[in-house]
Amino acid sequence: MTGQPIQSPDDAQFEPSAAERRVVVANQWQLIWWKFRKHRLAMLAGLVTLFLYAVALLAEFFAPYSSGTYSAAHTHMPPPQIHLFQHADAGPRFYPHVKGFKVQVDPDSYKRTYVVDETVAYPIGLFVRGEEYELWGLFTLDLHLIGAAEYGDPVYLLGTDRLGRDVLSRTIYGTRVSMSVGLVGVGLSLLLGVILGGISGYYGGLIDNLIQRAIEILRSLPTIPLWMGLSAAIPLTWPPVRVYFAITVLLSLIGWTALAREVRGRFLSLKTEDFVIAARLDGVRELQIILRHMAPSMTSHIIASVTLAIPGMILAETALSFLGIGLRPPVVSWGVLLQEAQNVRSIATAPWLLFPGIAVVTAVLAMNFLGDGLRDAADPYQA
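^ thats the sequence. predicted structure below, dont judge the formating
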């Protein structure tokens, strides 16, 4: 008689379902993704963030004009109203266009005022031909996402600044600098935070005390005055590219402290784990243990911390450039563009110059919501 396991009728209810078996065999990244995609706001923020970086990579394609193109006859021109239909004898037809403007000059104050000219219409469209540009220095193209359907028409969808430059195009070009400063700065902060925080948590003792006291000194100093002092040390004769990298390094030298504290706390609990002890007994060097064995175990937490740190870098660059001690023209960033709206008179006469501020708020909120979602998903076993 063959032996068969005796099963009670109630054993069937303890059989794991297909969904439960799928969770049991899933790796950590799959669990993080399954939990992250349930966070609707974080998913939306992730799409917005990807769009902003796509705009940064393809700024020449998204912008109707180059950042330096100007028209002296259209200074401080307000944004036009976009009309989707044109009324004709046969009825309305789909014809996206903007009306022209006439300039009226007050004979007493010589103030220029733009008045809508109903007799002139400039068609607009998608994927239109315009100014030539070099994409990544490799391809010469003249295709733009949106702009005047007929090349040469004065179509400025978000108005112009005091030199007659398109605000929309300059905001798009500013996305490249502002978003990349946050990314590069956080990359340097990540390197410093993981290495110094890992050394502090792994060795302890005197090294830990020295690093922690340095972190406390940096965190106790007021941030804006410290940035102002460091930025004032940058020579005015430096070219814009060198100033860009100097500002990035300055921001990263101050922004690594929070991540270093988190890494230190995590390493204090990890250095007594069996896999760390086994690597140490196997003769693996300390730096290799930190970077190849301990740091990857908290990769998800590091990614969440980095995502939350990028908005701080973007705001720091914007603040420094707005105050005139960060990036300077001809570099185009959101902070540099907001210098145009520093006084009440500029805001009163040309409120559309504040549009780069809307871009800053959108980017910071998107990155914060994305970071919150990643932080929640980083612990997939938490309910």
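The longest strand covers residues 112-135.
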